[in-house]
């Protein structure tokens, strides 16, 4: 969701959507997303059939390494924290490397990802939204729809990813040919370790990462602990501690919904956030700057603390805004 008052305060635009005053998050139709459905089924089938017969210790190591690099540097840091939320600054060449790694995860290209992310975020923060986005279905049924279908709203928002993204020819290339980005990985892994490395470094990895992305999306919007809530949202976010390491910190989702432009998602003691640690390493190397955290962000209206520790990470401006809201409600 766009950070309220962003234009007036000079804060960056979190959300790429336009025409929200005319858009409707409720009415629409669900259709089969043929290219992604076939891709996801093919990756899963290859992983199930070929994974066991090509297993080795080195293949498992390749799976773990390629998953960690693409999920952390690519999806979590490149796609989510840099491209979507602009939670830190970095050189353009580095941004493009991170975005290529995010595309290599195998879920989609950068511009498609921004649109999907922002559309879901906007819809789930409305008083009501389409059933496809509510995660109210049984677990396996929700996964079936998530990985094979897409929602077409009758009155969707407009979409403008902004300069430096929508007009970037490299990002447009990745968006159109996102599946093809697995080919250089296939060639490199075959040359280095043969077919077992290819199987565990591509279809097993892609199937695992895609399935995990749905899995955490389901649980992070249905159950868990919370330090913050978003006022008036039909779907709330929750923290899922058990998934903190494999998601590189993305599973601290209640924190993220409260402060979407924060580069750090694991805000409280004991909340492991490997994505943020990677950004800190980039900063130490002089490759990341202007790192945004709740303590240095403008006050964000529309959120409420749920625990005594919640405000310990927020800025003084946020605490003042919440105090004013409480006084207004009390009066």
Describe this protein with a few key phrases.
disordered N terminus, mainly alpha, two-stranded antiparallel ribbon, globular, 331 residues, 50% helix, 6% strand, single chain
- Euclidean distance between termini CA atoms: 29 Å
Strand proportion: 5-15%
Assembly form of the protein: single chain
Tally of alpha and pi helices: 13
DSSP, total strands: 6
- Which residues sit in consecutive blocks of at least 5 with pLDDT less than 50? 1-13
**The biggest beta sheet, please?**
2 strands, antiparallel
Helix content, binned percent:
40-55%
Order of helices and strands: HEEHHHHHEEHHHHEHHEH
Number of domains: 1
How much is the radius of gyration in Å? 20 Å
Output the strand order for the largest sheet. 1-4
Instruction: Name the shape in a single word.
Output: globular
Nearest-integer average pLDDT = 92
Q: Structural class of the helix and strand makeup?
A: mainly alpha
Tell me about this structure.
- This protein has 331 residues and is mainly α.
- It has one domain (6-19, 49-293).
- Helix content is 50%, strand content 6%.
- It is built from 13 helices and six strands.
- The chain has helices spanning 6-9, 34-53, 57-84, 92-104, 110-124, 139-148, 169-176, 182-193, 195-201, 203-219, 253-258, 274-284, 316-330; strands spanning 17-18, 28-32, 149-153, 158-159, 228-230, 303-305.
- Helix 2 (34-53) crosses helix 10 (203-219), helix 3 crosses helix 4 and helix 8 runs antiparallel to helix 9 (195-201).
- The chain is globular and about 65 Å long.
């Amino acid at each position: 969701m766009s950070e309220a008052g962003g234009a007036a305060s000079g804060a960056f635009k979190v959300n790429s959507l336009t025409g929200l005053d005319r858009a409707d998050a409720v009415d629409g139709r669900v259709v089969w997303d043929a290219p992604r459905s076939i891709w996801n089924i093919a990756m899963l089938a290859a992983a199930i059939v070929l994974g066991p017969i090509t297993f080795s210790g080195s293949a498992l190591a390749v799976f773990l390494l390629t998953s960690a690099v693409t999920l952390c540097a690519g999806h979590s840091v490149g796609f989510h924290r840099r491209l979507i939320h602009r939670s830190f600054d970095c050189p353009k060449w580095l941004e493009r490397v991170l975005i290529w790694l995010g595309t290599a995860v195998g879920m989609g290209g950068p511009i498609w990802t921004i649109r999907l992310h922002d559309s879901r975020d906007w819809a789930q923060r409305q008083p009501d939204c389409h059933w496809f986005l509510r995660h109210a279905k049984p677990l396996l049924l929700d996964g079936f729809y998530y990985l094979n279908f897409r929602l077409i709203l009758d009155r969707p928002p407009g979409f403008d990813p902004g300069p430096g993204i929508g007009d970037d020819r490299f990002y447009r290339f990745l968006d159109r040919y996102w599946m093809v980005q697995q080919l250089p990985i296939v060639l490199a892994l075959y040359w280095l370790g043969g077919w077992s490395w290819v199987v565990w470094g591509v279809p097993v990895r892609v199937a695992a990462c895609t399935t995990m992305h749905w899995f955490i999306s389901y649980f992070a919007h249905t159950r868990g602990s919370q330090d913050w809530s978003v006022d008036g949202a039909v779907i709330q976010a929750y923290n899922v501690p058990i998934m903190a390491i494999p998601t590189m910190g993305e599973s601290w989702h209640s924190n993220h919904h409260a402060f979407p432009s924060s580069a750090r998602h694991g805000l409280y003691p004991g909340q492991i956030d490997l994505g943020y640690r990677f950004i800190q390493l980039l900063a130490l190397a002089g490759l990341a700057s202007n790192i945004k955290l709740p303590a240095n962000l403008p006050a964000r209206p529309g959120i409420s603390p749920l625990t005594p520790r919640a405000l310990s990470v927020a800025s003084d401006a946020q605490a003042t805004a919440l105090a004013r809201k409480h006084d207004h409600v009390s009066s």
